[in-house]
Amino acid sequence: MTTRPKSRTPRPAADQPIEPPRGGLRAPCPCGSGKRYKQCHGRVRAGAEFVARPFEGLPHETDWVAFREIVPAATMRARTVDGDDVTFATVLPVAWPALRRADGSVFVGVQAADASADASRDLAAAMDAALAADGPGPVTHVDARRSTARLQDRLDLDTPPVLEVHEGFDFWVDGVLDTDPGEAEDPSDPLSALAPQVRASLERANAAVVPTEKLTSAESAYWCRIGDNVHLRWVIATPEDRFLDALARLHVTTVDGDTAGSTLGPGTRFAGFFRAYGLVVPVWDLPGDMSAEGTEEPLASFAERFQDALAVSDPLDAEQRRARAGLTSRQVTLR
């Protein structure tokens, strides 16, 4: 009987980064563990342990989550600790992680693909790559392994970001492209140099954009219209257990003896909620003719009732517990 000699090549340590195999992330890990690369040393290469609430500690944490999950076209202007002004956009042309324009302005795509298990670190790495670039151009790849800095380390937290929701993505090319698709004001600008590519990306993005408006009666609440359906999506930082307790208390009460306290009034319905980056995002279905402006007053009234319900510390009664169980099962999925 013969035995196969043991390999003299030691297996890489569990915390030692290994480059991905030629077969891609789903191929067997080169370390010989038998696992797929993405489930083995791919985790090490991608970075630190998963951060469930990556934007915690940033001003407007709930809006950072909204920009990642529910807002199609928007910008957030912020300042770094070094005094650089940076514009975070929900999406950039061709899904670039970041972009430095000819005038030196820097844009970062908030919805760009993750490079690690920490969205905050990914965005900081993309931002720093654009700030450090020798000249204008897109950042097409982010290696978050080369930096441990996060947005919480790199942004001036005493300067709140300035948010703006747009009807489309024309802000990509503001001041860059003139009315003639074949001409550009500044050939050194990456948006001009790639005008045909950018224009194609712009047309696709504008065709698919969901009309969205940021409401003022509650922080990080967004009205949107998807086809004939109208919704309210509200990103809140209240812990999930407390959110469900408060909503259950409201659900078994009525407003003006007519509608459940968990709704926003006649014709509205609490559809459910989902979780995003450690926060809860409840969703309401609204009547098709309910505008963003018309949603403000009902939302303000609900927000006041919700705060009152949060202040109650008594245990839920039997009816409220049944309501809570039903509300917990209302999980929604964005499509």
TrEMBL record:
This is DUF5926 family protein. Residues 54-335 form the DUF5926 domain. Residues 1-27 are annotated as: Disordered. InterPro entries: DUF5926, SEC_C_motif. Pfam families: DUF5926, SEC-C. It comes from Aquipuribacter nitratireducens. SUPFAM superfamilies: Sec-C motif.
